[in-house]
Amino acid sequence: MEIVYVYTKKRSEFGRQPLFSDRGAQLNIDIEPDVSLKDDFIEKNPVDMALQYAPEMSEHEVNTERFETESRGMNHTEGGWPKDINPAEVEQTIRFRKKVEKDEIYMGIINRLGTEMEHYLKQNNAIDIYEEYFSGSNASSVVDDSPSAKTLSVFRDPNEVKRAVSHISWYPDGAHRLAAAYSTLGFQKGSTGVPLESYIWELENPNKPEHTLKPSSPMLCLEYNPKDPHLLVGGCYNGQLALFDTRKGSQPLEVTPVEISHKDPVHKLVFPSSKTGSDVFSTSSDGQVLWWDIRKLGEPVETLPLEFGGYKPGEKLGGIALEYESSMPTKFMVGTEQGVILLCNRKVKNPQDRISYAFTGHHGPIYSLQRNPFYPKYFLSVGDWTARLWSEDAKESPIMWTKYSSSPLTDACWSPTRPGVFYTTGMSGNLDVWDVLFKQNSPTLTLQVSDESLHSVCCHDQGKLLACGSLAGDITLLEMSGFLSNLQPNEKQNITSVFERETHREKILEGRRREIKLKAKQASAAGGGGGVVAGGGGGGEEAEDEEDFVGKAETDFWDTLSHEQKTIEAKEAKRREAMAPNNQPTPIPEEGDERREEPATDSQ
Predict the structure, then answer these.
(1) Residue 283: which H helix or E strand, with range?
(2) Domain ranges of the chain
(3) Fewest CB atoms less than 10 Å from the CB: which of 271, 311, 408, 581?
(4) What is the pLDDT of residues 275-324, one digit of tens each?
């Protein structure tokens, strides 16, 4: 349809009528050029000029003000009843409901709301904006073919005095939030002015903590109860355990008494598998493992002193790390300050046999200890400058280990979705991703997460999200690529063959070492006289062998140092010789000059 509108206007308002005619060009004026200006003129050839009809505009950017969001919850209770109706009486409420349902106004409102709700339900079912098109069994064929990670968000300590993130625990019911324990890890750092709070963070809001936990002492570890996500238990610096309920405020519900708690900071606590979900056990550098029932924290249920006669009789070992696997309900492991891993069994009749074996190999405290989630008999430990992979079938030494890092390692964790991938953090601020199936001599991926040292790392159960805590109180949330989070084809069979091969190789090497040691003992016993029994002098011979090993290592060290020093001196001499000018003749010493040219020798 065409719409036409006619505008009317008086002829006098249009102005004078223009009259146009065709006529030839004519010259109105002619200006002669000034010859004096010719010298000042510079001819341009060619002459280019860019013209644009659109106006020229400059780029400008402004930082907008930061908008902070906050999520709040509310507990709703039943209400809205008339004054003459008692909600506790079932008969009165049923009678009132039937009366309201017969009202015509009520029926009309329900019909109108039902029609609107049906429309939105159909609209939601028609298009699913959250649909994952490649989440099936063929997901591994479309994932990234290269290991990578990206930073999603950073959660910063809101206090002015920054503290290290000593432990991170994921919410057990979905990747919605995480709990972090903050403490000062410096030696003999005073507690004056240091905040005591720890926080629970919502992943969607990194600007402000969702919940604040206020213990009486800084917490070194904090764990969610797997059966009840509202309950958390924290291990404090003064040796106490604190129970928190997020529904009942920031203060702890109950705290263990000081006189029966640990005497040193609680470094680690674990919730074992139980029917009630109320059992928890903790370890500390005071040399004890204590079992507790969170329903009654007045006294520990059981106590285990960390004393192992097979390692050093009469010496208590300080506990730093704990490891528990639900498939082995009676077994657990303890990582100690002395670099020893203790294999323990809680349900042994004889109390002296609770600690069955001690794995040795680290030079310093063991900060992390975790079993492989797919193969529990293989476990990972981190201490000093290396991460070591152990097997319970080859107890004498680790089956695999990383090369010594330039900075000490602080924490590690297995990937819950890939059996051959684990993560390590160090004081350099780097996160190293190791894929045993891909390569074993160097990390598959190294990320500079923070300028400060990293002290904690924790991977979510789905394997996609990884949280790293730093010395400055920052928690960096990383998203792993599909190559690192999705199970690869035939990975379980391949990693099983790798672990079994390394275990078998270690057994062969250990058997060969025992054979050489036994032959050395027999030769020493034969040389000392036939009257000496091999078993009687075993302890002295072992000490002599250890001294020989130490002396040989010391000799090798000084030989290597001397060789390196000679190599450096030779390089320096070559450098000086190359820098000397070749076109100048060698000066001839004059009479009376004391400098003489010495003949070259092999030692020089």
Answers:
(1) strand 279-284
(2) 81-111, 154-502
(3) 581
(4) 778 888 888 888 888 888 888 888 888 888 888 776 777 778 888 888 88
